[in-house]
Amino acid sequence: MTTTAARPPTPTLEQVAALAGVSRATVSRVINDSPRVSPAARDAVHAAVEALRYVPNRMARSLVTRRTDTIALVLSESNTQIFADPFFARIVRGLSARLADTELNLVLLAARGGREQEKVARYVQQGHVDGVILISLHRDDLLPDLLARSPVPLVLSGRPFDGRAVPYVDADNVGGAAAATTHLLQLGRSRIGTVAGPLDMVAGLDRLTGYRTALAAAGTPARPELVAEGDFTEAGGSRAMARLLSEVPDLDAVFVASDPMAVGALRVLRAAGRRVPDDVAVVGFDDAEVAASCDPPLTTVAQPLEEMTGALVDLLLEQIGSGGSAVEARLCGTALVRRASA
Fold it and tell me: N or C: which end of the chain has fewer CB within 10 A?
């Protein structure tokens, strides 16, 4: 017969108080980060907690602080898109790294359709999280309106379509796209197409604006047939590049609004016998890991994702601390990374 050793009893709040020489209420205040405790009492409680290996009851703590120590990352995309696009993995890694030294936990929620978005809104409104970071918004998304009805603090990744007063962090998509297009112009390219991002997303619209702005500054007409809309996926980039080649077979450069789409565009150009960069120069956007390893290595626009994820967390913590009263926007700069494709 196998016997199992009895587990030692779990230390109690009263035992911590007795060892620290303070009241139970003082221990509770220290654990809940109350400022109404002397430094000496705080040090004594921390020493007792460590000696007894006391673990606070998080459920009881949340009843006192009304905090869950959890924030939600809500991605307005399908699961397929989230796990296929390396951009989202980099966002999750960045947020996790920023939260590693805090007591906060990160939960990931995917919500693309109306039913899923309503379910996420109910989850948030029921008090399961202390704040929300909302990423990859589309024009028809219900979430901004649904979450606005909740007192839970909210920060957007990307500026809001309607200009509503909500904190957000964004990359300089217009400036980055303009720099990419200007680079192609400086290489002497004159028939520059673009594989645009989805035009129901701010990033897609802003990168198309940057492309057109650079052409206008150079006095080059923006021809409608040189614009093909993609969807930020590799397959979407392939389809859009094929459309561009059929419409303008003599194009000599293309700005692609995401690196996964650029990989698809390179595949189509290779299949069509077009050499990169000799016949067609290609610039992407994101500086994803694939950009350096594809053939040829991709010139692209780097987004400072570490800076952006840090800013998202900082703004959300400020919102949580202030009760959601402050509204701040942060625009993060981009940089052109030159490689063999252009």
Answer: N
